[in-house]
Design goal:
Elements: H1 4-13, H2 20-41, E1 45-47, H3 48-72, H4 76-79, H5 95-115, H6 120-138, H7 143-163, H8 166-193, H9 197-202, H10 219-232, H11 242-251, H12 260-268, H13 270-289, H14 296-309, H15 316-324, E2 327-329, H16 341-344
Parallel strand pairs: 1-2
Helix pairs in contact: 2-15, 3-5, 3-6, 5-6, 5-7, 6-8, 7-14, 10-12, 12-13, 14-15
Length: about 350
């Protein structure tokens, strides 16, 4: 409901040449997707076993996508000529979006390594898959998705280790050594295959080894520009999609926002502030009433980090935000009553 006023504002602020329907649909489809997912998942009871199955079903298409990239991406020696994000190395798709999906796959595989690998063979399989996905994610040269995946893994491990029993903690530490080894191997392979460009990319350098001035590759300028829009129209905002429309008018470049936070503030004004307060603090309030869910902060971190570097270009952050609102709890053991003597006779 809080998104609706910006549509009426946009009807008066968008330029004459802008396609009103497609522009509004483009910027509001992500938030609407998040809202519907959140309403469906809100406080819905689910067991840890069911959550593991959900994560597995999310992982399978990511593995299929990774296989597609391996088969259809051109030879890396032909396409890796600079340290910029590379859509060719991502299989022809947007490098930022592919890196976000593969970063999510890295997180899910890490969860499976620590929770869903009953035998060494299963753990070894998950390690190999982690190396493969990490390797392709690094070679997209889109850092946001990889860093987000690693951040979620770190948060998950901290929360899981704190709640684990002493015996389980020892198993976590032993698996952690193998896990770090797998990530290190993926990095070494990526650096070797890219001719050292991967190292320069994450060191914020160009192909010649010269450090770049802006580590955010232009995102800071867009962020500041949208905050200026919020200051100019703090109550009703500048209207949905007006931030992109303004850049077309002023610089002849329709650069879309990479940051959903600043775009929401600019286009929705005070309503955007209320939206962000609800999205941030309502899950934390739920967490205060149920501390069993060791996935919670990792899910919330994936949503928040992704919308800050890739906005809502893919549905993944919306879906993962909804998972953070699930009421995850241990399954209650079924009560088995002894049969009565009459029935046994």
């Amino acid at each position: 409901m809080l998104l609706i006023p910006s549509i009426f504002v946009a009807s008066t602020t968008l330029s004459f040449d802008a396609n009103f329907r497609t522009n509004i649909a483009f910027v509001l489809s992500g938030p609407v997707c998040l809202g519907l997912t959140a309403l469906f998942c809100y406080n819905k009871p689910i067991s840890f076993k069911q959550m593991s199955e959900v994560l597995l079903y999310m992982l399978l298409p990511i593995l299929a996508h990774t296989a597609y990239v391996y088969f259809y991406a051109p030879d890396l020696r032909d396409v890796l000529t600079s340290t910029a994000s590379n859509s060719a190395a991502a299989g022809g798709f947007g490098a930022n979006q592919v890196a976000s999906a593969l970063g999510l796959g890295m997180f899910i595989l890490a969860v499976r390594i620590f929770l869903n690998s009953p035998t060494f063979s299963f753990r070894l399989l998950n390690m190999v898959l982690l190396i493969i996905i990490s390797y392709r994610a690094i070679l997209t040269f889109s850092r946001g998705g990889v860093i987000t995946g690693l951040l979620c893994i770190a948060i998950f491990l901290v929360m899981y280790y704190q709640q684990a029993k002493p015996k389980v903690r020892n198993q976590v530490l032993s698996a952690f050594i193998l896990f770090i080894g797998a990530l290190a191997l993926a990095w070494v392979i990526s650096s070797n295959q890219s001719g050292g460009l991967a190292e320069k990319r994450y060191a914020n350098q160009n192909a010649a080894g010269i450090e770049k001035e802006d580590i955010t590759t232009g995102r800071t300028e867009l962020f500041i520009n949208e905050l200026e829009g919020f200051v100019a129209s703090p109550f009703l905002g500048i209207g949905s999609s007006r931030a992109k429309d303004q850049r077309i008018e002023e610089a002849q470049q329709g650069l879309t926002s990479h940051n959903e936070i600043s775009r929401t503030l600019a286009e929705h004004g005070i309503f955007g502030v209320i939206i962000l307060v609800i999205l941030l603090f309502k899950p934390l309030n739920m967490r205060a009433n149920n501390r069993q869910n060791y996935y919670f902060y990792a899910f919330l971190a994936f949503w928040f980090a992704t919308i800050n570097h890739s906005s809502m270009r893919v549905a993944a952050p919306a879906f993962i935000y909804g998972l953070a609102l699930l009421n995850v709890r241990n399954e209650k053991p079924s009560l088995r009553r002894k049969p009565s003597p009459e029935l046994t006779d």
